[in-house]
Amino acid sequence: MAWLGDDLLAVHQPGPDHGETIDGVELSDPVTRESRGLFAGPDGPMWAVEDLLYVTAAEGFEVWDPADGSRIAFAPGFRPTAADPRTGRFAELRDGSLREWIR
Question: Phi and psi at residue 83, in whole multiples of 5°?
Fold first, then answer.
């Protein structure tokens, strides 16, 4: 789940059994729960920074534009576990080394 603004929430879309998720995101109003869009693709921990979704996926780090549901960037092998939305920095600690990706 990631907040794209005060009135827009991005949530991994639940599957038919509600115990699974499908690879995709639903955009909705957090108060009314009204759906504002759905797109296939992202699956993994995600953060929102300035109208974009950043997702740690199995193969690497993805950047998605929720306005049209397109993946606009990919960093293979980089799997951050922490982010600072104020600065746009994402961090991964692997094998004793800290790696950063700066938007």
Answer: -150, 150
**Residues paired with residue 61 on neighbouring β-strands, in sequence order:** 56, 75
Q: What is the distance of C-alpha 46 from the center of its chain?
A: 3
Cα of 89 vs its chain's centroid, Å: 14
Distance CA 93, CA 69 (A): 29
Cα–Cα dist 63/67, whole Å: 12
Span 14-37, pLDDT tens digits: 655 555 656 789 999 999 999 999
User: How many CA atoms does the CB half-sphere of 9 hold within 13 Å?
Assistant: 12
Q: Which of 76, 72, 73, 40 is nearest to 58 (CA)?
A: 76
**CA–CA gap between residue 9 and residue 92 (Å, rounded):** 25
The C-alpha R_g of the chain, in whole angstroms, comes to 14
